[in-house]
Amino acid sequence: MELIYRSTRNANETATASEAILKGLANEGGLFVPDSIPALDVSLTDLAQMNYQQVAYEVMKLMFTDFTEEELKHCINSAYDKKFDTPEIAPLVHKAGAYYLELFHGSTIAFKDMALSILPYLLTTSAKKNHVKNEIVILTATSGDTGKAALAGFADVPGTKIIVFYPKHGVSPIQEKQMVTQKGENTFVVGITGNFDDAQTGVKKMFSDEKLASYMDEKGYQFSSANSINIGRLVPQMVYYVYAYTRLVKDGTIQAGDKINVVVPTGNFGNILAAYYAKEMGLPIAKFVCASNDNKVLYDFFTTGTYDRNREFILTTSPSMDILISSNLERLIYKIAGNDAEKNAALMKQLSTEGVYTITDEMKAKLAEFAGGYATEAETSATIKKVYESDSYIMDTHTAVAATVYDKYVNETGDKTPTVIASTASPYKFTRSVMESIDEAYAAKSDFELVDELCKLSGVKVPQAIEDIRTAPVLHDTVCDKEEMESVVKKFLNI
C-alpha cells in the first residue's frame, strides 16, 4: 500500500515519498509527515542476522513505498559502501555503562553521513520518477556537520547544485575548514554574519517564497533541501536505531522484545525524532532522553510544556546543538496535536511572531516517553576527561553532552534499562575542545598538532577526512549578511 505524506500545516497538501523528498519543505513552511508509520514486517530476531544494508532496506521499503526494490537497493548499496571506514557502518561500543552507537565512520566523520550518503541517490531517483527537467538546487543551513556531509554527498552529482549557509563564527575550526575546502563545480559555501537560526530562517524563507519559486522555474531550477526537514534525511536515520537494537539482540545483551532507552544529543530534533519514528514502527524503546547543552530550549520545553526561543543564544563547544528553533519538533507537535494541521500551524505562527508557544496539558501528557536533560560546558568537559581516564575512550563534545545527561538521568531515576547513546561525531572534529578537556596544557598547541596528540592518546588512526584538509586550499570565501542570502543564491546561479 502506498504511504501518503502530508504537510504539518495544511491537511490538504499531500505527496508521495519521492515527491516529498524532491520538494524538501511543504508549502507555508510545513514539513511532510507520513499519514501512518507501518510496522516492521520482519522479526527483530531475523533483523539481528542481517547486515546494515539489509536492515536499511527492511526499514526504508516501508516508508518509501513508491520506490521499486531495485531502485531502493541501488540507493542503499551506493550509499553504504567503502565510504565508511568500518564494515559495520555504525559500530556499537560498550563503554562507561552504556552502548555508544558510533555514527561517525562516514566520509565527513559525523552522523550526518548516515543520511546524507544516501540522500543524493534518493533525490536523483525521485527526480527521474517524477520526470523533473529542472536542475535541482540543494539549499541548506548548517550548524556545522550537515553542511560538509551534504557537500560531500552532492559534489559533482549531475543535475544538482548545492549551496550551504553556515554561521561564520559559530562552527569549529575543523568544521569550517572541511566546508570551505570542498571541491566540486556545483558546490557553493557561504558564511553568514549571524547564527544558525538566522541561516535556517533565511533558507526556509526562500523555500516558501512562491514568487522566487516561479522565477527559479523560469530559469530552469527548483529548490530542494538536505536539512533534516527533508523526509529523505529523516527516514535513513530510523535505520540505525533498528540496527543498534538488533546488534544487542545478536550479542545476547537483550532478548528480542526487551526494552532499551535511547539518549540523543539534540539540536534540530531530527535525530531523536528518527528514534521516535523507529519506536512507532515497533522498536521496543522505553525512554527517549533528549540531551541539550546550555541552549536548553528543548529541556525547558519538556519540563514545562512551553517552547520559548526568546533567550540568549550561547556559543558552546558543541556547536551543532547551538540551536534555538528546533525545526523537527514540529513533526512531534503535529503528532501530539492529533495530526491536526490547523492546530499545529497556529502554534508555529505563534513561534514565528512571538517566539513562544505553550502546548495543552492533553498534548503534554503524550510526551511521557521523553525525558529532557542538559549539560553545562564544565560538565561536558569533565565527562570527556572522566570517560577517558576510566575507559580509555575519547568522545566528542556532543556525545559528552549526551553522556553527562545520561548519568544525571540514571542518578535521578535509578533506571538501569540498557541504553544506547547516539555518538554523533568523531572527537577529531572537535579536537581542541576535546584535548583541552583531557588536559589544559594542550591549549598551547595548534589544531593540527592536537590532531596528532589525539591519535597518540586514543590509538585511533587519524580519519582521512582530517588528513584531506591539512593542506587543502580554501575554495569558498563568500561571507554575507542574513538579509543578502537570496541575492547570493541568484548570483551563484547566474540568474
Automatic annotation (TrEMBL):
Transmembrane segments: none
CDD domains, per the entry: Thr-synth_2
SUPFAM superfamilies associated with the record: Tryptophan synthase beta subunit-like PLP-dependent enzymes
Entry cofactors: pyridoxal 5'-phosphate
Residue intervals of the Threonine synthase N-terminal domain: 5-80
N6-(pyridoxal phosphate)lysine found at: K112
Gene3D superfamilies in UniProt: 3.40.50.1100, Threonine synthase, N-terminal domain
One GO process term, biological-process aspect: threonine biosynthetic process
Source taxon at top rank: Bacteria
Protein name in UniProt: Threonine synthase
Source organism phylogeny: Bacteria, Bacillati, Bacillota, Clostridia, Lachnospirales
